[in-house]
Design brief:
With 394 residues, this protein is mainly β. It is 4% helix and 41% strand. The chain has 3 domains: 58 residues, no CATH class; 136 residues, no CATH class; 93 residues, Sandwich (Jelly Rolls). A hairpin with a 5-residue loop joins strand 3 and strand 4. The longest helix has 8 residues.
Amino acid sequence: MTDKQKVRDLESITNSYNDQHLMVITDLNSNQLSKQKISDFIKDIISDEQENSVVTASDGKIFCLDTSNADNISSGTLDEARLPKSGVTEGEYQYPVDLKVNDKGQIISVAAGQPGGNNADASLSNLNQEGEKHFLNKFQITDCILDAPNGTVEFEGSTITIKQGLKVLIPDGFNADGSLKNIEYTLEEDLSRTYTTTVKNGFLFLNLHDGILYQTWQTGNYYLIGNNKTNISNFTGVFRNLDTNLTDYYDKGVAQQGRYVCIADNVNSNNGVASSITPYRPAELIKRSDKVEIASWSFPDSRKAVNLTLLASGQSYTQPVDGYYAISKTAGIQNAYVSMYSGGIGYACPSPNAAGSCVLSIKTLKNASCVINYNATGDVNYFRFIPAKGAVNE
């Protein structure tokens, strides 16, 4: 402790221009003041302890490790440079990202994540069953040809050839959610087989076993059954079971290995020579992008309009496709009319003026008759049939 001095004997603190003199409290109990070097005072309070102490930094500045009494920042801006390091490596992280956050809401670690859990990879190959049911088999398709770019089947003499590129859906039971399960298979090259028997009639099947064609193909009878609905113990042929979504080949009641799909019928041969085969057509699947075109299928396609000859009143007309009959006929007399009737619906167009015209049209279905009645005596301006845009003549 320094010598006691009266406050009035000490120099004013405002007169200190360096650290040689400064008033400091050296004895709190006596409330005494001392004139001493500030540098000596700093040395007295600096500690080597790492907790609750004042220490010097590498740049010579002093700071206090005890932050328990720090005030919360309620206003103003804290310089970003003064924030402590979080330990997170700076950079951009692409989805998916794994984050760890503490109870203060601070991100304490960040790393590139792996697909899985709640994340699906780009190809959706890691979807679980719960996810798959939102995408797979929503149209419940099975037991069909998906594509036949080179045709389905050809025959010449005793040889039948199934064409390369044929893509089929082979029934394979049900998924856990009850949707249809399939094996999608594409024939990589032409597959030929020559008859070894004199007579062979029935249907034509592909048989897939363990991912390969177990038997090249099979012909025979084809039966559609449900569980316990048909006794097959003595039968030989292919049985399509709707209750199991399986198509199995039975030889005298014994199921053979494989998964079958029917690709043609009306297979006939005489004396070992194929005489006829009717291949099945690929399924025509409608995509969401087709909706605009589909919406217009019922509208008339005027580019395909066919001019007709108007017969006597009361006669009927029939066309092989869906479409519209349209007529315009000059009245010729007062209170003339023309009427059309088809499928339980009728329309009429009167004309009170002899110089006027009776104009009307009616929509008709494929092969449905349309009856036209009239008393108008004037010229026929037009009478035609206009097919619908989506009309199919089969």
